[in-house]
Amino acid sequence: MIPVIAHDRAGFGSALISVGLLVLMISLWGFRKGESWVWNTLATGALPAFIAGIGTHLFIGYTTFIHLLPVYFLVIVYLLGLVLSYPFLKMKE
């Protein structure tokens, strides 16, 4: 069982790092006025992660507020970032 858990944690960690670097690079080099593809990518790209993360917890029944508090905080910060960046990125030049 230990090798299975180790591979699961390694896969999850590497996926987290990969996605984090992708979001960082898109935000640093693609964030220009009128670049609506950046906003669309950031808005739709987060959906699978949020749905999988929260959905898995709902499925297994591990839904304590304190345990999911970081995810709730992340969703609020992410949505706030999307709302605040919308006028800049969706602006027609």
Helical content class: over 70%
Order of helices and strands: HHH
Number of helices: 3
Please report the total strand number as a whole number.
0
Strand percent estimate: under 5%
* Poorly predicted sequence stretches spanning 5 or more consecutive residues: none
Question: What order do the helices and strands come in, and which of them pair?
Answer:
Elements: H1 2-29, H2 36-60, H3 65-90
Helix pairs in contact: 2-3
Structure described in brief:
This protein is mainly alpha-helical and 93 residues long. The protein has three helices and no strands.
Question: Could you explain the architecture of this structure?
Answer:
This protein is mainly alpha-helical and 93 residues long. Helix content is 85%, strand content 0%. The longest helix has 28 residues, at 2-29.
Key descriptive features of the protein:
globular; mainly alpha; 93 residues
